[in-house]
Write a structure and sequence with these properties.
It is a single chain. This protein has two helices and no strands. With 86 residues, it is mainly α. α1 packs antiparallel against α2.
């Protein structure tokens, strides 16, 4: 295995990680911004509101997109194993 193949495998791994993490992170960030604006307008500064909403969004996203995430991860793992076999 030469350096270009190693770089390709690492780059593909980073792409998979970004694809898997981005939906949860973006939705969590969006909920955080909306809750922060709501708290600024109403002057309610309770930390648990933001935490509970973010947690529920992440869990919901995992339930809805978990199959797609696992499929992508298994495809990458199969790709790695086929590279190891030669």
């Amino acid at each position: 295995m030469d350096m270009t193949q190693v770089a390709d495998v690492l780059r593909e791994g980073v792409v998979v990680v970004i694809k898997l993490a981005s939906p949860m992170l973006l939705l969590s960030m969006l909920v955080g911004v909306v809750v922060a604006i709501f708290q600024a307008v109403t002057q309610i500064h309770e930390q648990t509101i933001s935490f509970i909403l973010k947690l529920s969004v992440v869990v919901t996203m995992l339930l809805l997109a978990g199959g797609w995430m696992m499929e992508n991860l298994l495809d990458y793992a199969n790709y790695l194993f086929t590279l190891m076999r030669g």
